């Protein structure tokens, strides 16, 4: 039985038009984060599941015991309690170790929600307070507010962490380490050396990711992908017009002609975008993450920096007298004096989404938390085990999301507080004023592009997988229709030539 390509193309196209439009618009926004980082979206316009509840969604990433580090007259807290700074995706909040109250501590930080995705807050040796978000580093001081500190960053370089040891302050970006000494006004950029087993290969996942966004070829590639998104938008609009069959004949004819020509000439590009997007979600994603391929010459992946876009978190380990470095390639020991790194084989698994918790417990062991779970890591004994079950940690990372998606942790309250990404924590009542803290436009676009805004977290595993297949089938069916029309036309022309033209 022959497939009815026209019916497939028609009904798949109509059914997917809205979602395809959303994918295209959100994709363009995702490609230009720096341009929209100041734009916020109120959570009251989003599904209710996007409200912060019980400290979920990364609202609680960590805490810092101030221990009277700030001048007394700048704070109004109970003297009998230790003062804490609680930080996360909603900014910074002043509290105490009894969680008796929470006060906004974001004065001086840019208003954009992207700026207030606080990755870490620390106290330097001189008592100064520092905070870092992907788009800036801030020092608390003048006029009792945060002040941005300028750094010699490359274009679109994102910051990931900040740490200190002695009088050394280290700021980590996704590609470099920046070191500063008192008075912490200037930073020296350090490119870390290649690990011993470095072969220049990258994960297939990252290659496909950058190909899908166009970033594989820099800004030119991004603009090309933006153009493909606009093409898909035009295909959706003209397709709907053809389906509606408007009375204006000119509009119908122009829509059909545009739909036909654009679809024919861009079929390879549109199929490429659909296929690469489909590959970026489970189950295909897992296979791509676990396999490495050589970096493609002439692309952004072919970098002189072996740590380009791979650095995630850094801490000083007093027990081993080195810097503990978390990367997308695993954990490493870093000697800051010569920038040399050494792989650590006893480390627990970390989700491909990156580590969210890296702090020591009372016994001096590292607590490593990510969306793959929470593990206790004893570097001296070279062993790691699950925080909740006590079972030995698996040698390799599994699915991006484990049974417990750890988003944050604090050991500054009466008992350890562990915040899961979806469930949060019930260690204390979350202030109602935090429920609808704004979300950045970029994050909203990410939720739309991933499909989570439509059907929730299950979209990570199902929505894109199904929609990708349907999108490819819709594009292919349109191509097959055109091929058949062309064959019939050529046959008709040949027939006429044979009977009426030839002598």
Characterization of this structure:
It contains ten helices and 26 strands. A hairpin with a 2-residue loop joins strand 3 (83-88) and strand 4 (91-96). The chain has 503 residues and is α+β, with helices and mostly antiparallel strands. The protein folds into two domains: 5-34 and 199-302 and 461-483, no CATH class; 52-198 and 306-435, YVTN repeat-like/Quinoprotein amine dehydrogenase (Methylamine Dehydrogenase, Chain H, 7 Propeller). The strands form eight sheets. It has a four-stranded antiparallel sheet with strand order 2-3-4-5, with no helix packed on it. Strands 6-7-8-9 form a four-stranded antiparallel sheet, with no helix packed on it. Strands 10-11-12-13 form a four-stranded antiparallel sheet, with no helix packed on it.
Could you name the CATH homologous superfamily of the largest domain?
YVTN repeat-like/Quinoprotein amine dehydrogenase
Helix content: 25-40%
Task: Fill in the CATH topology of the largest domain.
Answer: Methylamine Dehydrogenase, Chain H
**Radius of gyration based on Cα positions:** 27 Å
Specify the overall morphology: globular
| Secondary structure tally, helices | 10
End-to-end separation in angstroms reads 41 Å
Q: Give the biggest sheet.
A: 4 strands, antiparallel
Mean pLDDT over all positions: 90
- The neighbouring-strand order within the major sheet is 2-3-4-5
């Amino acid at each position: 039985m022959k497939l009815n390509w026209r019916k497939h193309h028609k009904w798949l196209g109509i059914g997917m038009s809205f979602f395809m439009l959303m994918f295209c618009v959100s994709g363009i926004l995702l490609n230009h984060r720096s341009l929209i980082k100041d734009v916020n979206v109120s959570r009251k316009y989003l599904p209710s599941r996007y409200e912060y509840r019980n400290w979920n969604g990364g609202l609680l990433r960590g805490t810092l015991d101030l221990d009277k580090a700030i001048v007394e007259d700048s704070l109004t807290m109970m003297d009998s309690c230790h003062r804490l700074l609680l930080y996360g995706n909603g900014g910074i909040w002043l509290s105490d170790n009894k969680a008796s109250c929470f006060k906004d501590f974001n004065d001086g930080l840019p208003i954009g929600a992207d700026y207030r995705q606080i990755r870490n807050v620390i106290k330097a040796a001189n008592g100064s307070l520092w905070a870092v978000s992907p788009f800036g580093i801030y020092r608390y001081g003048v006029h009792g507010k945060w002040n941005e500190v300028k750094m010699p960053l490359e274009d679109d370089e994102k910051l990931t962490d900040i740490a200190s040891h002695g009088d050394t302050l280290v700021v980590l970006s996704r590609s470099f380490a920046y070191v500063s000494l008192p008075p912490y006004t200037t930073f020296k950029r350090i490119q870390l050396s290649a690990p011993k087993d470095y072969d220049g290969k990258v994960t297939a996942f990252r290659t496909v990711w950058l190909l899908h966004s166009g970033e594989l070829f820099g800004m030119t590639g991004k603009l090309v992908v933006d153009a493909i998104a606009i093409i898909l938008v035009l295909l959706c609009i003209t397709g709907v017009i053809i389906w509606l069959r408007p009375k204006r004949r000119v509009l119908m004819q122009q829509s059909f002609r545009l739909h036909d020509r654009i679809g024919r000439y861009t079929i390879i590009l549109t199929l490429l975008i659909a296929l690469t997007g489909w590959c970026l979600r489970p189950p295909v994603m897992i296979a791509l993450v676990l396999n490495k391929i050589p970096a493609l010459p002439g692309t952004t992946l072919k970098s002189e920096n072996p740590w380009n876009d791979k650095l995630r978190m850094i801490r000083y380990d007093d027990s081993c007298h080195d810097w503990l470095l978390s990367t997308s390639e695993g954990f490493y020991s870093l000697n800051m004096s010569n920038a040399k790194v050494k792989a650590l084989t006893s480390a627990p698994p970390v989700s491909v989404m990156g580590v969210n918790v890296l702090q020591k417990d009372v016994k001096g062991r590292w607590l490593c938390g990510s969306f793959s779970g929470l593990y206790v890591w004893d570097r001296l004994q070279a062993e790691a085990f699950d925080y909740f079950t006590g079972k030995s940690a698996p040698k390799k990372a599994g699915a991006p999301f484990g049974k417990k998606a750890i988003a944050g942790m604090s050991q500054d309250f009466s008992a350890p507080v562990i915040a899961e990404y979806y469930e949060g924590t019930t260690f204390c009542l979350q202030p109602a004023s935090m429920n609808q803290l704004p979300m950045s436009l970029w994050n909203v676009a990410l939720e739309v592009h991933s499909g989570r805004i439509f059907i929730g977290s299950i979209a990570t595993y199902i929505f894109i997988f199904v929609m990708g297949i349907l999108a490819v089938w819709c594009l292919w069916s349109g191509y097959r229709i055109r091929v058949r029309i062309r064959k019939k036309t050529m046959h008709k022309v040949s027939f006429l030539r044979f009977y009426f033209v030839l002598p």
